[in-house]
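Retro notes
What went well: the complex prediction finally ran end to end.
Inputs used:
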Amino acid sequence: MSHLHIPDGVLPPILWGPGLALALALLLLAVRATRREAARTVAYQGALGGLMLAVMSIPVPLFALEYCLTLAGPVGVLLGAAAGFQVAFVVCVILALLGQGGLTVVGLNALVLGAAVSVARPLYVRLAAGRGAAASLAIATAVSQAVAGLCWFALLALALNLSPGAAVAIGHGGARTGLFAGITIGLWLLAIAAESAVAFGIGRFLARVRPDLLPAAAGRAAAVPVAGLHGSAP
Amino acid sequence: MINTLAQIDFIASAGRSPWHRASALGKLVFAAGAVLLAVFAPGLRLAIALYAIGWLAALTSRLPLRLLAAAAFYPLLFAALFVAVRWDGSWETALRLMLRPLTASLYVVWLVGTTPYPDLFAPLSRVLPRATGDGLFLTYRALFELLGRAEHLFRALHLRAAAKLPARRRLPLAGEGLGTLVLHGFERSQRMYSIMLLRGYSGRICGCRHYAEWSWADLWVLLAALAVTGAGVLLWRAP
C-alpha cells in the first residue's frame, strides 16, 4: 500500500506532473538537510534501500493472500525523514526501471513511500520514551503505513474524480468504485498489521543486539554513538 | 524474482545486438520520448504504431522471448483493473487505455535489457543530486546480495516449519530474521565506506563515461527515433 504499482498512461498528467515536481523539490530539500553527513551515510542508505527492494520482491504468504513487505517504517526510523526520503526516491526509480510501476509515476510513488518513511522516526522517538523499542517501532510502522495508505487513497480518489476532459480520465462508476475501495481498505488493514508485526520483530532483534542503530528516545542520549548515524539529520 | 533480475542484468551487459552497442544516453532519451508519446497519444492508430515499433525494437534486441513477454505484459493486470473501472462500453477506449501502459513497459524493458546499469544510472546521476545519484549505484549493488540473503532467510524459515505457526508469531519471527539483514547491511556499509575512502571517494561516485560514447550503432537508435517521431507527426490527429 505504500507503493503504487500503477503503470504509465493510467493516471492523468495533471496528477503525475505536479507529483514529480513536488517529489524533486522535496528531494532537493532532503539532500540539503543531510549534506554534512551524506558522504558517511550514503553506503548505509544504499544498503537499506537494497533491503527494501529485496523484501518488496519476495511475497510473504499471509492467510489466503501473498503480501510484499516494504519496510518503510523501520527504514524511516533507522535513517530519519530526510535520508529516508532520498532512499524512497531511489527505490522508486529502480522499481520503475525494473517495470514495477511506471516511469511517470516515480514522483507520486516517492511521495507515498516517502510519507511513510518520513513520519516514522519522529513518532518512534516520542513513543520510545515510555515503551520498549520493539513496541515503539511497531506502532511507528503502523502509523507510517496508515499515512501511506491515506496518501494512496487520496491519489486514487483524485485520479477517479478528475474531469473527463483530462488526458486520461478514470471512471465515474459509483458501484465499481465502491467495490474497489472496499477491497483496498481490507488489504490496507492487512498490510498495516503485517508490517507492524514484522517491525516488532526487527525492533526486538536490534534492541537486543545493536541498540545503537536505533535512535534514542526523546530526552535520552543515544545508547552508543559508534554508529554515528543519528546526528543532526532530521 | 532474483533469477529474472539477474537474467536482465546479465543480458544487458553481455548482449551483442546493435542496441547493446548504442550509447546509453541516446537510448535513454529515445525511450523517455517514446514513453511520453505513448502516454499522451490521443488516438488508437498512434498507440498501435508505437506499440508495433516497440515490439520491433524489443525483438531485435535478442532478449529471451519469455523474459520479454513477462516484463512487457506485467502492467496488463493493473491496466485491466483501471479499464474495468473506466469502462464506458467502448472497446476502442479500453484498447487505447490498455496500450498506453503496455507500450511504455515495452520501451522500458528494451532500455533496461540493452543497457548495463552503470551506463543507465550514469546519465541519471548527472541530473540528480550527488547523494541521490550515488544512492542509485549503491542501492542497486546492494540489492542482489541482500535479495539472495533474504531468499535464503525466508527459505530457512519455511524449512523450519515457520509456515505452520500462526501469523501473529510468524511475522515477528520473519522480522527478527530481517533484523539480521539490517545488521548485515549496516556492517557491510561500514566496510564499503572505508573502501570508498581508500579509493579516494570525495562525495561522488564517478559513473563510467561510456554512456555518451557515440558509435555507428547509434544510427539504429536514431532510425527508431525517426520512426517514432514520424508516427507521432502523421498519426497525432488520426482516430
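What we learned: The domain at 13-227 of chain A is CATH 1.10.1760.20 (Arp2/3 complex 21 kDa subunit ARPC3).
What to try next: split runs per interface for comparison.
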